[in-house]
Amino acid sequence: MHLPGRFSQLPEYTFDRLRTLLGSNSPGGEVIDMSVGGPRHEFPPWIMDEITLSSHQFSQYPPKNGTSELLASIANWYKARYDIEIDPDKNISVVNGTREALFNACIAFCPEELHGKKPRVLLPNPFYQVYVGAALAAHAEPLFVDAPKENNFLPDFTKIPPETLDGVAIVYLCSPSNPQGSVASRDYLKDLLRLAHKHDFLIFSDECYSEIYRHNAPPGMIEIKSGFEDDLSHKIMFNSLSKRSNLPGLRTGFMVGGAQLIEHFKKYRSYSDPAVPIPLQKVAARLLRDEKHVIASRERYQRKYALADQIFDQHEGYNPPEAGFFLWLDVGDGEQMAKRLWLEKGVKVVPGAYFSFGAEGETPGERYIRVAMVADEQELEQGLNAIGDMMR
Ligand SMILES: Cc1ncc(COP(=O)(O)O)c(C=O)c1O
Q: Is CB count within 10 Å lower at the N or C end of the chain?
């Protein structure tokens, strides 16, 4: 049996590595799981009725490109959120969450070769794990661009030599970022978009945390004017209802981009992925018309940021996140800290090294742990206090 060699570069998946690290050791207290970034705030209760009402439509194959109701809701949401008009039929692809879309888009858009060589795909380091698997699946060469504290935990693409950029097919950007909660400014996005046009690469802008923020709504790549004629030709934005509406199990998301890009992706996707069931598309359409539940959830996260500020105020390793629901704490040795937290306190967090790439002992996530602030306030406070005590 011959397995494809290119996947041998893939490290063991984050949560499998965590399981191996913690082994069969018993937790040192009541378990507080702060490892997985699964939203746990409430979602609007009416979705149950909506699904029941349209449940007869589970008997139909759904329209593969999205119902007109959902497409209109997405376009209206873009107008309200970013003041940008998009064409529901030409600029949107409805997907089963952004995980699928971020993976598949790389396969759909990465050419076989670029200037006679294997194309490069640039990834932030640390990264959301799916980007790496996608780059390898597309037979591309993943190139990890460190996102250091000195650069607000964002990769500095402007420092990459032009001759390297000429060989790049795709750049993944995550803003607000997982794991650090950084937000790319409009200037940052503009610099990247200019590079994309100059060196003819595509930007995959992963914006699934766009609605969870502390003060100001993060800018989206869609708002950035390239100064070139076709403004949407080099960028695709990815978003979903998972974090915005606390419905990761709904598996509904969307990609927005230039007409030519979306047409190509829809064609590719007709072969690769099932469509989102109609009752779920109905729910998604209605969720996008409702901001009340999003504001309520955001207010809870804002209280969580305040709690983290209060608990970690005196800690040098604390980097207050601007957005998202993770803390990215510099603890000196992330793996050791994750193990101790489990063994001594029953608190489960992820070593930062499991989200980053590099020689052992030298990955940019090595010193960090990632802490998901998804539990209810009481449990969260307990968990953060335990981490704070341990860091002291
Ligand atoms: C950075 C980032 N992008 C994309 C996703 C995928 O989200 P979904 O597939 O639920 O839309 C996640 C989920 O954790 C994420 O953290």
A: N
Tell me which of 15, 128, 280, 328 to substitute to probe ligand 1's pocket, judged by most ligand atoms within 8 Å of the beta carbon.
Answer: 128
Q: How far is the CA of 83 from the centre of ligand 1 (A)?
A: 24
Q: Does the pLDDT value for residue 378 go beyond 90?
A: yes
Terminal Cα distance for the chain, rounded = 52
In CATH terms, the fold of domain 5-42+293-391 is Aspartate Aminotransferase, domain 1 (3.90.1150)
CA distance 121 to 49: 43
pTM summary value: 0.97
Q: Is the pLDDT of residue 228 over 90?
A: no
pLDDT per position as a tens digit, 323-336 = 999 999 999 999 99
Amino acid identity of 197? Answer: H
Q: How many A from CA of 112 to the centre of ligand 1?
A: 27
Architecture of the domain defined by 60-288: 3-Layer(aba) Sandwich (3.40)
